[in-house]
Design goal:
Length: 192
């Protein structure tokens, strides 16, 4: 068999300096290539992490708004079906809310009972506001009462992510219909 027809190289042949120089540039990465790849990956990770933190803040606000709003809807429907006025209270200092629906919490004489079950909302700020998202009267509690006739003591509450001073969502309760709606505020005071 001829030398050129062999499938495997002959182990008896010497590995020459010429062959070593030819193979030197064939395998592996240079240090510059490796540094470029690491730089690109770090830029991409930075972009993703920034977007993820904004998304997390938005999700916290959306979750808090939906929890409060669904409690208000349930209070309104319960008041209509049972004929008993239902209450939803918002504590803007503690970032918490309570409802008379749970059977434990009751509102009378201008205050909630001592055993009221307040639900804390994490990662959001609750503020008194008007329907346009402008800061309202600084008071600790906001009370929404839903009567058996379907009406409510109207009002609004602003929900913001912690550290997001100019954006948020306003929950607005219509006093005539008792229905609640949500408005997004890209810049406070300009909610639609």
């Amino acid at each position: 068999m001829r030398e050129s027809q062999r499938m495997t190289p002959s182990l008896s042949e010497e590995f020459t300096l010429q062959q070593a120089k030819m193979r030197k540039g064939v395998g592996g990465f240079s240090l510059i290539e490796l540094m470029a790849v690491v730089a690109i990956i770090s830029i991409l990770v930075g972009i993703v992490m920034g977007g993820q933190s904004q998304l997390l803040s938005k999700n916290k606000v959306d979750g808090a708004v939906e929890r409060i709003k669904s409690t208000m809807v349930a209070a309104r429907l319960n008041a209509l079906s049972t004929g008993v006025t239902q209450y939803v209270g918002i504590d803007v200092d503690a970032e918490a809310y309570v409802s008379s629906l749970d059977g434990i919490s009751t509102y009378s004489g201008g205050a909630w009972n001592a055993g009221a079950a307040w639900t804390k909302l994490e990662g959001v700020n609750l503020l008194n506001s008007n329907a346009k998202g402008q800061a309202g009267v600084a008071q600790q509690y906001e009370l929404f009462s839903f009567s058996s006739r379907g009406t409510a003591a109207g009002g609004s509450i602003l929900v913001q992510a912690v550290g997001a001073a100019k954006t948020g969502k306003v929950i607005i309760v219509n006093g005539i219909t008792g229905r609640s709606r949500t408005e997004e505020c890209a810049d406070l005071g300009t909610c639609q």
